[in-house]
Write a structure and sequence with these properties.
about 300 residues; alpha/beta; Arc Repressor Mutant, subunit A; Rossmann fold; 3 domains; five-stranded parallel beta sheet; 13 helices; about 60% helix; globular
């Protein structure tokens, strides 16, 4: 089998995306975003995740000049066997699965979380992660934006990251819009935008506005096929496949933790000094609860 067939297929899907019918577009985007899941899952499960019929998957195979669905999936399966280690499932996970009906649900969610952390982290190359970290450290101002569920990731990144990166600003603030906060952004600034399918309109509009202002853009998302209206400088892709209705953010959080580690390391002694100053301030103001000893 041609070892480049998977890459060629993904490249063609990206190129064809704007001209595809709405249902074929859903399939194309799913394959581009989740190539590992596409290689692993049977046709009915892939159809369920895409929200289309199995017939639509067969149509996609024919569009790409494959004889059928299995032929389309084969290079993705081959890539998994050739280059990826399976997630090790510990014995306690099997015990959990056989405990009860809810135990099975918990086991499925646990296995999913472990898998998407691995899939998310294995996609991040050291070169790209270093580029992103240095881009943030060299920026005049770093804006960080997200809304709704993604805001929790942005809040954590800002809470911890500002100690190593004092130029980091979480937007929007004070019930404003992110665009309000970007009014004075300029070239030399960087914005990090966090958004996952279905993409938040506010975040996409902020990305478009930031690019018009000459701001460099870093996306943390589940795809590098987001909007034809702008092109990010860097995209860190996380898997958010879940066993429930909403996306699972374990993979995205693992990428954030990796980026924080790089920022602290590259920040050197000044970053360590800032972290210590925050810790000293919290101790001085009794920020942490301490149990009183019994006399």
């Amino acid at each position: 089998m041609d070892p480049t067939l998977k890459t060629k297929t993904i490249s063609k899907l990206k190129a064809d995306l704007p001209s595809l019918s709405p249902r074929l577009r859903l399939v194309a985007k799913y394959i581009v975003d989740y190539p590992s899941d596409f290689g692993l899952d049977p046709i009915r499960e892939t159809a369920r995740k895409c929200g289309v019929s199995t017939f639509t998957l067969v149509r996609m195979a024919h569009h790409l000049d494959f004889a059928g669905y299995d032929e389309l999936r084969e290079p993705f399966r081959h890539a998994l066997v050739s280059s990826s280690d399976a997630v090790v499932r510990p014995d306690w996970l099997d015990d959990l699965r056989h405990h009860s009906d809810l135990g099975r649900v918990q086991a499925d969610a646990t296995a999913n979380a472990m898998a998407i952390v691995q899939r998310s982290l294995e996609r991040q190359t050291p070169k790209q992660m270093e580029r992103v970290a240095r881009m943030l450290l060299e920026a005049e101002t770093v804006y960080l934006t997200a809304v709704r569920a993604s805001y929790s990731l942005a809040y954590y990144f800002h809470y911890v990251g500002r100690m190593a990166l004092p130029t980091l600003q979480l937007i929007p603030r004070h019930i404003n819009s992110a665009i309000d906060e970007l009014q004075y952004a300029e070239p030399g600034d960087v914005m990090i935008a966090i958004t996952f399918t279905p993409y938040s309109r506010e975040t996409i509009e902020a990305c478009k506005f930031a690019r018009k202002r000459g701001v460099k853009l870093i996306m943390l998302s589940d795809s590098d096929v987001i909007s034809p209206d702008f092109e990010p400088d860097e995209t860190l892709i996380a898997s958010v496949v879940s066993t429930h209705h909403f996306g699972c953010f374990s993979g995205a959080m693992s990428i954030i933790e990796n980026l924080l580690a790089l920022l602290v390391q590259l920040g050197g002694e000044p970053a360590k000094a800032r972290i210590k100053s925050y810790e000293d301030l919290r101790k001085e103001t009794n920020a942490y609860w301490v149990a009183h000893k019994k006399h």
